[in-house]
UniProtKB/TrEMBL annotation:
<dbReference type="InterPro" id="IPR001732">
    <property type="entry name" value="UDP-Glc/GDP-Man_DH_N"/>
</dbReference>
<keyword id="KW-0520">NAD</keyword>
<dbReference type="InterPro" id="IPR014027">
    <property type="entry name" value="UDP-Glc/GDP-Man_DH_C"/>
</dbReference>
<dbReference type="GO" id="GO:0016628">
    <property type="term" value="F:oxidoreductase activity, acting on the CH-CH group of donors, NAD or NADP as acceptor"/>
</dbReference>
<dbReference type="GO" id="GO:0000271">
    <property type="term" value="P:polysaccharide biosynthetic process"/>
</dbReference>
<feature type="domain" description="UDP-glucose/GDP-mannose dehydrogenase C-terminal">
    <location>
        <begin position="319"/>
        <end position="412"/>
    </location>
</feature>
<dbReference type="InterPro" id="IPR036220">
    <property type="entry name" value="UDP-Glc/GDP-Man_DH_C_sf"/>
</dbReference>
<dbReference type="Pfam" id="PF03720">
    <property type="entry name" value="UDPG_MGDP_dh_C"/>
</dbReference>
<dbReference type="InterPro" id="IPR014026">
    <property type="entry name" value="UDP-Glc/GDP-Man_DH_dimer"/>
</dbReference>
<dbReference type="Pfam" id="PF00984">
    <property type="entry name" value="UDPG_MGDP_dh"/>
</dbReference>
<dbReference type="GO" id="GO:0051287">
    <property type="term" value="F:NAD binding"/>
</dbReference>
<dbReference type="InterPro" id="IPR017476">
    <property type="entry name" value="UDP-Glc/GDP-Man"/>
</dbReference>
<dbReference type="InterPro" id="IPR008927">
    <property type="entry name" value="6-PGluconate_DH-like_C_sf"/>
</dbReference>
<dbReference type="Pfam" id="PF03721">
    <property type="entry name" value="UDPG_MGDP_dh_N"/>
</dbReference>
<dbReference type="InterPro" id="IPR036291">
    <property type="entry name" value="NAD(P)-bd_dom_sf"/>
</dbReference>
<dbReference type="GO" id="GO:0089714">
    <property type="term" value="F:UDP-N-acetyl-D-mannosamine dehydrogenase activity"/>
</dbReference>
<protein>
    <recommendedName>
        <fullName>UDP-N-acetyl-D-mannosamine dehydrogenase</fullName>
        <ecNumber>1.1.1.336</ecNumber>
    </recommendedName>
</protein>
C-alpha cells in the first residue's frame, strides 16, 4: 500500500479528495498556491462553505499537510492526484493553463514508480497529447517509469445523498499496469465501484459526455417551459405525468440558467475538440446558447409581472433572493443569478439582493430586509431556508405584491390564493 499521496490543488475538487485520502489512512500532502488556503487547511478549517467539507477538514487536521512548497508536497509521493481548475476563456475556448503549469511543476519532482492521476476535467486527448509530453520532460517515460491515468472527478457540492466516497468512478490509463494500480488505489478510498476503461481518451470523454447530456436535457426542458408558457400549460404537471412512465423518460426541470464550473463549461471542451478534428456540434452548441439565454428570459418575465401591476421595472421595489448557482452552497461560479443581478441592476438602481451563503455580494443583511414591501420577489436560488420562509402567509405579512419563482420551488396555488401574483418558468 502506498504511503504518501499528494493532491495538487485544494479547491472544490482537490480539498474533498485530499480529506478522503487522509481519512483512509494515507499520508497526505496538499499542494496549494494560495497561502490563505494553506493556513486554513492546516488549522482544520475549510475555505469552502460546505457543511460536510467543513466537518471533513476538521476531522483530518494534522493528517492532511497543506503546503505551497512543491518539493515538500511531491518529492516523496507515491501517488499524485492533479485536481486543478480547467476553465474556459471569455470566448469559450478551453483554458488548460493550470493543468500545464501543474504538469511542469510535477515533472521537476517526478520519480520512478510514481502513479500520476489527472482528475481535472479535460477534453479527450489532453492526457496523451499535453500531459504526457510535459511529464516526460523529466526524462522518465509514462507506462515504463511512471504510471499515468485519467480518473474524471465526480463531486456534487451540497449533495446530501451522494458524497465523494460513495460515487462510482472510472479509470483509463496509458497502459494496463497504470490502470490496474489506479483501480486498486481508488477501491481503497471509495465505498463504490471503480470501473476500468480501455483507454485514457474514453475516461476523458466520460465526464464531458455526462455534463453535456445534462446541459442538453436542461436546454430541452427550458425550451419546453417557454413553449408551454405560451400554450398555458404548467410544465411541472406535464413532468409529473411523464414521470409515471417507468421507462424512456428522465425528469429534468427548467430554471434561470446553468451554473457551476461543470455543465456551463464542459460542453465547450467537447465542441472545441470536435471542431479541431473536423466535426461541428450543432446540437450541443444550440443547447449552450439556450441555457446561456435563460437569465435574459427570466428578467423579461419579471418585467411582464411588474407590468401587470402597473409598475415600471426602473422604479419598482425588487428583491433578488439567491446568488449562488445552486441551493445551500456558497459557490457563485457561472451563477445565472449573478447575470440576473447584472441585468436588473442596470435597470433598477435600488434592487435589494440577499443570499445568506454569499454575504459579500448581498446588499442587505436579512431576508426580511430584502422582501418587506417588495413589488416583486425574485427567487433565483432555492436555498432551503428561502423555501421554508417564503410561505404564502409570510409573503402576505411582508406585503409582497408579486413573486417570480425562477426555480419553481414555492407554493404557487397558496401564493395565488393569498392574493399575490405568481409566475414561474413554464407555469
Amino acid at each position: 500500500m502506498p504511503k504518501t499521496v499528494a493532491v495538487m490543488g485544494l479547491g472544490y475538487v482537490g480539498l474533498p479528495v485530499a480529506c478522503l485520502v487522509a481519512k483512509k489512512g494515507f499520508k497526505t500532502h496538499g499542494l496549494e498556491l494560495n497561502p490563505r488556503v494553506v493556513d486554513q487547511v492546516n488549522q482544520g478549517k475549510s475555505h469552502i462553505r460546505d457543511p460536510a467539507l467543513i466537518k471533513a477538514v476538521k476531522a483530518v487536521k494534522g493528517k492532511l499537510l497543506a503546503t505551497g512548497d512543491a518539493g515538500l508536497a511531491l518529492s516523496g509521493a507515491d501517488i499524485v492526484l492533479v485536481c486543478v481548475p480547467t476553465p474556459v476563456t471569455q470566448d469559450k475556448h478551453p483554458d488548460l493553463g493550470f493543468v500545464e503549469s501543474a504538469c511542469r511543476t510535477l515533472a521537476r519532482h517526478l520519480r520512478k514508480g510514481m502513479l500520476v492521476v489527472i482528475e481535472s476535467t479535460v477534453y479527450p486527448g489532453v492526457t496523451d497529447e499535453i500531459v504526457k509530453p510535459l511529464l516526460e520532460q523529466s526524462g522518465l517515460r509514462a507506462g515504463k517509469d511512471f504510471g499515468l491515468v485519467h480518473c474524471p472527478e465526480r463531486i456534487d457540492p451540497g449533495n446530501q445523498e451522494f458524497a465523494l466516497e460513495n460515487i462510482p468512478r472510472v479509470v483509463g490509463g496509458v497502459d494496463e499496469h497504470s490502470t490496474t494500480e489506479a483501480v486498486k488505489f481508488y477501491r481503497k478510498i471509495l465505498a463504490a465501484s471503480v470501473t476500468p476503461l480501455n483507454s485514457i481518451k474514453a475516461a476523458e470523454a466520460v465526464k464531458i459526455m455526462e455534463n453535456t447530456f445534462r446541459d442538453v436535457n436542461i436546454a430541452f426542458i427550458n425550451e419546453i417551459a417557454m413553449s408551454f408558457d405560451k400554450l398555458g400549460i404548467d410544465v411541472l404537471e406535464v413532468i409529473k405525468g411523464c414521470s409515471t412512465k417507468p421507462f424512456g423518460f428522465m425528469p429534468f426541470y427548467p430554471g434561470p440558467g446553468v451554473g457551476g464550473t461543470c455543465i456551463p463549461k464542459d460542453p465547450y471542451y467537447l465542441i472545441e475538440r470536435a471542431r479541431e478534428k473536423g466535426f461541428e456540434h450543432r446540437f450541443v452548441s444550440l443547447a449552450r446558447s439556450l441555457n446561456n439565454a435563460m437569465p435574459v428570459y427570466a428578467v423579461s418575465l419579471v418585467e411582464q409581472l411588474l407590468a401587470s401591476l402597473g409598475k415600471p421595472v426602473e422604479t419598482a421595489h425588487l428583491a433578488l433572493l439567491g446568488l449562488s448557482y445552486k441551493a445551500d452552497v456558497d459557490d457563485v461560479r457561472e451563477s445565472p443569478a449573478l447575470e440576473i443581478l447584472r441585468l436588473l441592476s442596470a435597470k433598477n438602481k435600488s434592487l435589494k439582493a440577499f443570499d445568506p451563503f454569499v454575504p459579500g455580494k448581498s446588499n442587505v443583511r436579512s431576508l426580511e430586509e430584502a422582501v418587506q414591501g417588495a413589488d416583486c420577489v425574485l427567487l433565483a436560488t432555492n436555498h432551503r431556508s428561502f423555501v421554508k420562509s417564503l410561505s404564502p402567509r409570510q409573503l402576505k405579512a411582508w406585503n409582497v405584491k408579486a413573486v417570480f419563482d425562477a426555480r419553481n420551488a414555492l407554493d404557487k396555488e397558496g401564493i395565488l390564493a393569498a392574493g399575490i401574483r405568481y409566475k414561474g418558468i413554464g407555469r
